[in-house]
Design a protein that fits this description.
single chain; mainly beta; 27 strands; extended; disordered C terminus
Length: about 325
């Protein structure tokens, strides 16, 4: 099966075509990009990924990552081409308890990250390899309301070394309204030593009576984004804090047809797209004199992509484009091996 990526760019050398090959069970056996780089996938009898071989290039060798699983289907061991091994430990409920990383040949350093949960299965703490502890707190609805990271080491700006006399504590609080929307995020950073210094930043979020986000406010109290919607709850305008506006237009079926960027009240860029009767994207105009045309078969599968660039204005006032490249997909069904 041929998969088109980054197809909006009409310059032939910039267009990437990815080829995917499948096995009889529908698993991807290999992917090949436009430069011929192939990634190969192998599976065990249960359909779990057994290995992935990534391609080499001028600077790196190919790399194969191998996976092993426990009886519950969880990944318990992962080994890459550099002999770096990751081991995963789980509890009886299949929740990750620890991740251990070490090397089997020449790489001696071992790092372990540990995780703990409450009776409801919520993650309540993480301990990273440096001993930093991240704690999570939840409300009665299971929503995270507080995160605390203890004992983060500080770097002395003068010596560039770890400051042994001070550490920092990072706290984040999340507040919700009665509808479950996040209305405020509070970040507190404490520098702890002989004295404690704190800094606080508050981000606020506003919603309309339909629960749609309409404004984001930064710690200085300035609105960094405002959003307007149409009657179908589709976003039609977005304003940032620097007088930039993005505007969206839709057809009668609610599909996006035009996107415009404004600055100081002037249009600085415009994108357009059209659709066929089945709702598939038919054309895209990038606003820079380039158009992409998508052609489908009766099944609605993409069979051809034509990359066009602006040529002239016709007698009817319509833009004329010339065909600079056509990509064909001769086999849109998965290739089975």
């Amino acid at each position: 099966m041929y998969v088109f990526e980054d197809i909006d760019n009409p310059l032939g050398e910039e267009v990437r075509v990815k080829i995917e090959i499948y096995d009889y069970t529908g698993n991807v056996k290999s992917t090949t990009d436009a430069k011929g780089n192939m990634t190969v996938y192998e599976y065990n009898d249960l359909g779990n990924l057994r290995s992935v071989t990534y391609p080499s290039d001028e600077s790196i060798d190919s790399n194969t990552v191998e996976y092993k699983y426990d009886s519950m289907g969880n990944v318990k061991n992962e080994k890459n081409g550099l002999d770096v091994i990751k081991e995963y430990e789980y509890d009886e409920q299949g929740r990750l308890l620890s991740t251990k990383i070490y090397g089997s040949s020449g790489i001696r350093n071992e790092t372990t990250t540990r995780y703990g949960y409450d009776l409801l299965g919520n993650l309540v703490y993480e301990i990273d390899p440096n001993g930093n502890v991240t704690k999570h707190q939840y409300d009665e609805l299971g929503r995270e309301i507080k995160t605390v990271v203890n004992n983060k080491k500080l770097i002395n700006p003068n010596t560039k070394e770890i400051n042994t006399s001070r550490t920092s504590q990072h706290e984040e609080y999340i507040c919700y309204d009665r509808d479950g929307n996040v209305v405020k995020e509070v970040e507190v950073v404490k520098s702890i030593g002989n004295t404690t210094k704190s800094s606080v930043r508050v981000y606020a979020y506003k919603y309309d009576n339909m629960g749609r986000l309409i404004e984001k406010v930064d710690p200085s109290g300035a609105a960094i984004e405002k959003i307007n919607y149409n009657l179908n709850s589709a976003q039609i305008q977005s304003f940032d804090g620097e007088d930039h506006v993005k505007e969206f237009e839709y057809n009668k079926n609610g599909m996006l047809v035009t996107t415009r960027d404004y600055h100081d009240g002037n249009v600085v860029h415009e994108w357009k797209q059209t659709y066929d009767a089945a709702g598939n994207i038919f054309t895209k105009d990038d606003g820079r004199g380039n158009e992409t045309v998508y052609i489908y078969n009766w099944r609605g599968q993409l069979t051809k992509v034509k990359l066009m660039e602006y040529d002239s204005i016709g007698s009817n006032g319509q833009k004329r484009f010339k065909d600079i490249k056509t990509l064909h997909a001769t086999a849109m069904m998965p290739t089975v091996i």
